[in-house]
Structures are given as C-alpha cells and as structure tokens.
From TrEMBL:
It is a multi-pass membrane protein. It is found in: Cell membrane. GO terms for cellular component: plasma membrane. Residues 15-391 form the Cation/H+ exchanger transmembrane domain. Keywords: Antiport, Cell membrane, Ion transport, Membrane, Sodium, Sodium transport, Transmembrane, Transmembrane helix, Transport. Its main location: membrane. GO terms for biological process: regulation of intracellular pH; sodium ion import across plasma membrane. Belongs to the monovalent cation:proton antiporter 1 (CPA1) transporter (TC 2.A.36) family. Na(+)/H(+) antiporter that extrudes sodium in exchange for external protons. GO terms for molecular function: potassium:proton antiporter activity; sodium:proton antiporter activity. It comes from the Bacteria. InterPro entries: Cation/H_exchanger_CPA1, Cation/H_exchanger_CPA1_bac, Cation/H_exchanger_TM. This is Na+/H+ antiporter.
Length: 521
C-alpha cells in the first residue's frame, strides 16, 4: 500500500505539473489520467480512513485558514442554505429517485446514497473560478458551502446507515444527532481555537508555531469525532478563528505558514483526484446481476437528478434570499447560474461509499458504490470541463473588484506612508540633530516608503505609464532582479572556488531571495 501511494503521488505530481504549465485545471486532468491508467495498473484501494482522517482535516483547515471570516459572515444565509438546506434536499430527492429505480434497495440505503452524493467539492470550481476572475462573492459562497456541507452530509449518512443496519428510522433521533454533531463541533472548535491562540501568544517561534499548525486539524477532527460530534465543523471553526487572528503572529510565522499550506494543499489534492480516477476497475468489478444498459441508465438518472436538484434549490434559495432582503443581497442571474452549475462532487463522497459497513448486502453495497463513482466522475468531467466556458459566455468578471481593490490598497498605502513618516520624524526629533551617516539612513527610509506607495498607485494603471511606457517602479524591479541574479552568480562562483562556505552561501541567498520576493506581486 505504501509503495502504491508513493507511485500514485509521483505520477499525480507529474500530471499536475503539466496541467499547471498548460494552464489547465489540474483536478480534471488528474481524474481523467486516473481513469485512463486504471485498467492498466494494479488496483489502488481508496481507504476511507485515509481520506477522512488524513486527507480531509488538513485540506479543510487550510481552506478555512485562507478564508475571510468577515466575507463568510456577509454571505452566511446563502452558505447555510447551500451547506445545510441543499444537502438535505439533494439527499431526499436522490434517495426517493433511487428507491423508485431500485425497489429492492431498502429506503434507508437509498437515503444513505443520497447523503453520500449530496455534498459538492468546490476545489475544482474555485480553482477555475479564481483563474477566470469569478467575482469574490460567488467564490466566497462556494468556499463557505464546501467548508460546512461535509458535516451535514456525513451526519445524514451516519443516521441513514444506522437505520439500515438497525432496521428503524427515528426522524426525531436523527435531528437530535445532527444538532448534537453541529453544536459539539462548534464548541470543540472554539475551545481548541482559544487553547491554540493562547499557546501561540507564548511561543513567538515561527518554526514551533507552524509545526503546531500541522497538528491542529488532526487534533480538532479526532477530538470531535471521539465524542460523535462533527470533526469537519470543529476543524473549520479552528481554522477560521486562527486565520482571522493571523495578523497577531510574527512575520516569520505568516511567511512560513503560507508556503507550508500551499505545498500541503497541492500534494494532498493531487493524490486525492488521482485516486478518484483510479477506482474505475474496483467499482465496476463489484457490479453483478444487472445488464450494462440497466446500470448505465441508473447512473445517468442519478447524475441528472443530482445536477437538476442543485439548480432547483439554488433558484429557490435565491428567490428566498431576495424575499428576505436582510443582510445578504441576492446573487445576479449570471451568478445564480454559475452557483447552480458548480456542483462537482469529490473524494469525500467516494470515501463515504467505500466506508459502507460490510453488514450491508454485497449487491446493494456494490450498486451504491458504482452510482457514487459515476456521479462523482460525471459531475467532474461534465460540469468541470464546461465550467470555464460558462463563466466566459455569461461575461462574469471581477475586473471592477480588482480595480476597487487596487484603489483601496493605494489609499491604504498612502495612509500608512503618512503614519510611518510621522513616526520617523518624531523619532528623529527625539534623537536630536543627525550626523551625515544618519541623514543618509533617514533619507533611504523616506525613499523606500515613497517607492512602496508609488508602486500601489501605479498598479491602478496596470503597471504601465503614459503611452504604455514602463513605470519607475516596474523599471526598478526589472533592473534590481537582474542585479540580484548577477550577485547570486558571484556568491556561487566563490563557493565553487572554496572561498565561501555553503552555510554562508545559504544565508546570503536567503537574503537575496527575500528581497526578490518582496518585489513580486
């Protein structure tokens, strides 16, 4: 299993690298590659525990850490309608349709299948949306939905599976379990958030803080799941709380944290989407007692119902939001269509299907796994591949938001510049008359502040001056990059000549790299 995962990881990273170089959506290419090679390689089983306890917590935590609590609060009604209402609605509709199509499948298992299929995975949609400039509000809704919908779906799944195994369905007990899981997840998440925030205030060590950050999602998930609360909600709450307070950490912690979670996300997501495609043979082998046409018809019907039910609910939710008119403003018609089409399913659905207990009859279990797999693949390949075209055709753009962001940044840089210069003048006045060397240092500080503010205003024009000429800031960055490269070559040559130690080389290279990173936008 370890060697298989290593080979999967290596192949997935290679495919993702090609996708990034070509500007293609990596998740879709990884799924397609997995489907193509699945018949030619040994089966790579998807372990539910691996997905739910190893992959899911850090991916959720990273998304929550990078999300805006304030923006999520602005769209809280839309997020709640999608992450709770839509999941319940989809589970019910899919459950009834599956029970009609397969009368021999118990109703509880049909609803369990609905709960498995219900939660979309917004990773692919958000990746495409960001690349094509989807408005921030729509992206925030998609991210917020993906943060919380797994908790609703997994709770419904546990209730339905329990009813299938136990033979009875107690609606009141199911609602109580859901409320307990949600409330327990929130309380455990808040408790752990306060504890870790208290620890961070006393460590002040970027290495220690980021090491703790890697442990937080697993600690939160396991703590909540151990008392049958929602581990998903606990992880999300901790991530949102600590992400909103990241400004209190040191600059080293923020720089390292950003790099650590980018690498973690890329690594885990590439493996996850590759594993989805690689399940093709495993899923098909378990189907017995049905003709190929019957199986294809069932899969197409469930896929169609899943896609249509999201559109129906999004339209209804948009109308309800418009009627309430409190807090949330309804999305535009174009955004409503985009939200309705952004229903790609992911690995959590497959993991839940693979986790169906062995007490369930093998024939029913195989059919549920197959329908889950075809729905996941169908939504990824159909909706995922057409999503970019839909965004372009509808003319949805974030150009105005980008301009407003740059204008706000320039104004903020100006205000910060004035505050910084005022503090500099106060310190100089307290110090007394500076000597020549001190005057040069003070002038350099003033010039650096003005250059940063000027760069922010220049970006309003797209980085070009009048007549398309190069702006002073752009010229400075271009020339300074060339100078830095020349300096690096000298340091490396001196190291190769044994006139400079490798440890010294790493230190000076880090200084040059940090300066170049500061110039990047």
């Amino acid at each position: 299993m370890g060697l298989q995962l290593l080979l999967v990881a290596g192949g997935a990273i290679a495919v993702a690298a090609v996708a990034r170089r070509r500007g293609w959506p990596a998740p879709l290419l990884l799924v397609a590659a997995g489907l193509l090679v699945s018949p030619m390689v040994p089966a790579v089983p998807l372990q539910p525990e691996l997905v739910l306890f190893v992959f899911l917590p850090p991916l959720l935590y990273s998304a929550a850490l990078d999300s805006s609590y304030l923006r999520l609060r602005d769209v809280k009604r839309a997020v709640a309608l999608l992450s709770v209402g839509l999941v319940v609605f989809t589970a019910a509709v899919v459950g009834f349709v599956v029970h009609l199509l397969l009368p021999d499948l118990p109703l509880a298992l049909a609803f369990a299948l609905g709960a498995i299929i219900a939660p979309p995975d917004a990773v692919a949609a958000v990746a495409v949306g960001r690349r094509l400039g989807l408005p921030r509000r729509a992206l925030t809704i998609l991210v917020g939905e993906s943060l919380f919908n797994d908790a609703t779906a997994l709770t419904l799944y546990r209730v339905a599976i329990g009813a299938a195994v136990g033979g009875t369905v107690d609606l009141l007990e199911g609602v109580g379990e859901f409320l307990f899981a949600a409330a327990g997840g929130v309380l455990i998440g808040l408790a752990l958030a306060f504890v870790f925030a208290w620890l961070f205030q006393r460590t002040r060590d970027s290495l220690v803080e980021n090491t703790l950050m890697l442990l937080i999602p697993f600690a939160a998930y396991l703590a909540a799941e151990s008392v049958h609360a929602s581990g998903v909600i606990a992880v999300v709450i901790v991530g949102l709380y600590l992400g909103n307070r990241m400004h209190l950490r040191g600059f080293g912690t923020r720089l390292v944290s950003d790099a650590v979670w980018k690498v973690t996300d890329f690594f885990l997501e590439t493996i996850v989407f590759a594993l989805i495609g690689l399940q093709l043979v495993t899923v098909i082998e378990g189907i017995t007692g049905y003709s190929p046409w019957e199986v294809a018809g069932y899969a197409a019907a469930v896929l169609a119902v899943t896609i249509v039910s999201r559109f129906v609910w999004v339209l209804a939710a948009t109308s309800l939001t418009w009627l309430l008119r409190r807090g949330d403003r309804p999305p535009t018609r174009q955004q409503t269509v985009i939200l309705g089409w952004a229903g790609m399913r992911g690995v959590v659905s497959l993991a839940a299907a693979f986790a169906i207990p062995p007490d369930i009859p093998a024939r029913d279990r195989a059919m549920m796994l197959f329908l889950t797999f075809t729905t996941v693949i169908g939504t990824l390949l159909i909706q995922g591949t057409t999503f970019p075209t839909l965004i372009r055709r509808l003319g949805v753009s974030s150009d105005q938001e980008v301009y407003e962001d740059r204008l706000a940044e320039a104004a903020a840089q100006q205000a910060a510049l004035e505050a910084g210069l005022a503090e500099l003048e106060r310190l100089v006045a307290e110090q007394g008359e500076p000597d020549e060397i001190q005057k040069q240092v003070i002038d350099q500080l003033r010039e650096k502040s003005w250059r940063r503010s000027l760069s922010a205003w220049e970006r309003l024009g797209g980085g070009t001056g009048q007549g398309g000429s190069e702006t002073p800031s752009s010229l400075y960055r271009r020339l300074r990059r060339d100078m830095l490269q020349a300096e690096r070559e000298v340091f490396v040559r001196l190291r190769d000549e044994r006139r400079l130690d490798d440890e010294v080389l790493r230190e000076v290279m880090a200084q040059l790299d940090f300066e170049e990173a500061m110039m990047e936008r």
